[in-house]
Design brief:
Elements (H helix, E strand, L loop, with lengths): L1 E6 L2 H11 L6 E6 L9 E2 L8 H11 L3 E4 L2 H6 L1 H7 L3 E3 L3 H8 L1 H11 L6 E4 L2 H11 L4 E5 L8 E4 L2 H13 L10 E5 L5 E9 L3 E3 L4 E2 L2 E3 L3 E4 L4 E4 L6 H21 L5 E11 L2 E8 L6 H5 L7 H9 L14 E9 L25 E4 L2 E3 L10 E3 L3 E9 L2 H14 L5 E2 L6 H5 L6
Parallel strand pairs: 1-2, 1-4, 2-3, 4-5
Antiparallel strand pairs: 6-9, 7-8, 7-9, 10-11, 10-16, 12-15, 13-14, 15-18, 16-17, 18-22, 18-23, 19-22, 20-21
Helix pairs in contact: 7-8
The structure holds adenosine monophosphate and glycine.
The site of adenosine monophosphate has 15 residues, from strand 7, strand 8, strand 9 and strand 17.
């Protein structure tokens, strides 16, 4: 089987690595791909992940059996719809289902209509009405969110009235987030640990994967700006079997059924961003795709062939598939360019990797790298090419063991101004998880 994967980050490297383990796979392609992915898949950097027509043309040329669309933008823009019209099988939701991530106004409305637990909220397009609502509620912190996609930056937690009013103005008046911020959601601030649960669904059946925990802030102790994710662990020890049962009954099944009822069956990977509040689990956000860097710690624990799952989702027979998971733990430490998520430099040489961009005993998932394009050089040289550069990922019997392996490799891998958090998994270990 030939598979084309759309995307070029650490998540896609983890997906392609999992696909490469399948005995069914003969050839893997990626567009655009990246330096690390090129060691296991033929990359097509000339086609950007958001170039829908370009991707359809590439698929016509490569004739893959499946196209795996991994990132949010092409899914929300309808890449799966176009590929299906052109006769290709795909993994990923159509645009009318991807709206679950593409519009928070839609997803909040769906949750309200079907009684799926989430933060209380109101939506606004008129800044005066939004500000009047904030003043009337007079409860802080309060959470202000853009309706549409905003590279993870469209959520502002306002600590007081001035910050809340500024947030509303930046979105509805100043157009800081473009069209994504032309409608906003103002919602109740919730507290509690966060859990990510990715789930396979074919539109009718939902099969949750192993849970995970992201570390979103840039610096140790959850300080600094929000990032795309500085590290992850799986499973998430705070997500007990009891919580899983509650989420299945109150969130996962109702969501998939609601989408089917609305005529928007969701096929692919549905991302549940959950908060375990004192009043029960609540949905913080849905994403219409695998998380990054959650995928990097979840897929190494998958024992079932990902190609078998992809086929079962496409053919809507997930109900009959038994998906097996390892009982080990996995940890991913992200090495980023100094300055990320703000300004940073690229083009720095990465030292400590072998010719395939790997390091023995761990998975090195490349997020933002490229290979130096000097064909006269015998040895491949990897250069930094993004904010998040590498996700150093290890599996072990215990979380402590996985973290030790990952941090051991991190010490040997270097590039100028590399930055990483040194406390990934610390909170989970403190919860006593590894004592079992
Ligand atoms: P989102 O993009 O919706 O996941 O929001 C980004 C981050 O903002 C989440 O991971 C939470 O840490 C935080 N957040 C979002 N909504 C809320 C809320 N209602 N209460 C508290 N924190 C929130
Ligand atoms: N790690 C958060 C996300 O993928 O949206």
């Amino acid at each position: 089987m030939k598979i084309l994967t759309v995307g070029g980050g650490g998540r896609e490297h983890a997906i392609i690595t999992a696909l490469s383990r399948s005995p069914k796979v003969e050839k893997l392609y990626a567009a655009p791909g990246n330096g690390g992915i090129s060691a296991i898949a033929e990359c097509h950097p000339e086609v950007k992940a958001t170039d829908i027509e370009g991707m359809v043309s590439l698929a016509k040329k490569l004739k893959p059996d499946y196209v795996f669309v991994a990132p949010d933008d092409p899914l929300v823009m309808g890449m799966v719809d176009r590929l299906n019209e052109a006769g290709f099988k795909t993994f990923g939701p159509k645009a009318k289902a991807a709206v679950l991530e593409g519009s928070k106004v839609f997803s909040k409305g769906l949750m309200k209509k079907y009684g799926i637990p989430t933060a209380e909220y109101e939506t606004f397009t008129d800044p005066d009405k939004a500000i009047a609502y904030i003043k009337e509620k007079n409860s802080y912190p309060t959470v202000i969110k853009c309706d549409g996609l905003a590279l993870g930056k469209g959520v502002i937690i306002a600590e007081d009235e001035a910050q809340a009013v500024n947030a509303v103005k930046s979105m509805l008046l100043d157009g800081k987030f473009g069209k994504s911020g032309s409608e906003i959601v103002i919602e109740e601030y919730l507290t509690g640990p966060e859990v990510t649960v990715l789930a396979f669904t074919d539109g009718k059946t939902v099969k949750p994967m192993i849970s995970s925990m992201d570390h979103k802030r840039a610096y140790d102790g959850d300080k600094g700006l929000n990032t795309g994710g500085m590290g992850t662990i799986a499973p998430n020890p705070l997500y007990t079997a009891e919580k899983q049962a509650e989420c299945m009954e109150k969130i996962f099944l109702p969501t998939v059924r609601a989408m089917e009822k609305e005529g928007r069956p969701f096929k692919g990977c549905l991302y549940f961003g959950l908060m375990l509040t004192p009043g029960g689990a609540r949905v913080i956000e849905y994403n219409c795709r695998f998380g990054d860097p959650e995928t990097q710690v979840v897929l190494p624990l998958l024992e079932t062939d990902l190609v078998d799952i992809m086929e079962a989702v496409w053919e809507e027979r997930l109900v009959g598939l038994d998906i097996k998971w390892s009982d080990k733990a996995c940890a991913c430490v992200v090495m980023a360019s100094g300055g990320y998520p703000e300004k940073y430099e690229t083009g720095k040489e990465i030292k400590g990797l072998d010719a395939k961009g790997q390091y023995e005993g761990v998975y090195v998932y490349h997020a933002g790298t490229k290979i130096e394009d000097d064909y006269l050089k015998k040895e491949a040289k990897y250069l930094t090419a993004g904010g998040r550069v590498l996700g150093i990922t290890a599996v072990d019997k215990t979380l402590q063991g996985a973290l030790d392996k990952a941090y051991g490799a991190v010490k040997d891998i270097a590039f100028e101004k590399a930055h990483y958090r040194s406390d990934i998994g610390k909170r989970a270990l403190e919860s006593g998880y590894d004592l079992i």
